[in-house]
Amino acid sequence: MPVRHPDIALPRLVAHRGLSARAPENTLAAVRAAHEAGCTWVELDVQLLGDGTPVIWHDASVQRCSDGRDALADLDLPRARRLDAGAWFADTFVGERMATLREMLALIDELDMGLNLELKVNRGRSAPALVDGVLPTLLDSLPSERLILSSFDDAALAHARKQAGPGLLALGVLFEGIPRDWRARCETVDAFSVHTDWKRLSQRGAQAVREAGYRLLAYTVNDPAAFAHQWDWGVQSAITDDPALFAGRLPEA
Length: 253
Fold this sequence. Notes:
Elements: E1 13-16, H1 28-36, E2 41-48, E3 54-56, H2 77-81, H3 101-110, E4 114-119, H4 127-141, E5 147-151, H5 154-164, E6 170-175, H6 182-188, E7 193-197, H7 203-211, E8 215-219, H8 224-227, H9 229-233, E9 237-240
Parallel strand pairs: 1-2, 1-9, 2-4, 4-5, 5-6, 6-7, 7-8, 8-9
Antiparallel strand pairs: 2-3
Helix pairs in contact: 3-4, 4-5
């Protein structure tokens, strides 16, 4: 029988790591800024600290986006809480803290937003452990109609599908470009959507994805003029650092 996915109404634009052009990425402040700018969905990254706490963070270390230098895997929550995750971006955000998954989900639910959460499996980290640490809280916090769980990591997606069961969770398969085996990899995890680098997307690849019945999302789109023809190819949502760039440039519904 065909897989029945949640009834997800995707917007044209998804704010990448929150409104990362205007606030420090993957923070509560970035999500609040996205909401204030009129965004209804955000894309965020999740990993585990060394003590197993799921946090919203992209890199394997904290050096780029905080005043620390440690690997994420070497931190526990009390040490992570002492980091300033906002000062690097602007003085306005001095004192912003790393968000736990639970805190972020509470905010997204309060704001009635949708979430594309990427399982970020950096080198040396366990995909099953990440899924086990994230999934129960995730499924308890947001309705399935406002949630996509995505990853580049096939093992993470396979474990998420096994744990969540068929049709109860929308999974997105992340690619840099659409590879030859894309369809088999999507079918293996009963995927809902394909997420790909817009600069590596071809019309032929987009057509194949859409004809196979998958939703098609493109990242990270910050040049609306160069991207415009891909709406006609069937891209449903563009994940962007700055949705304001698209003012007056979106196709009609």
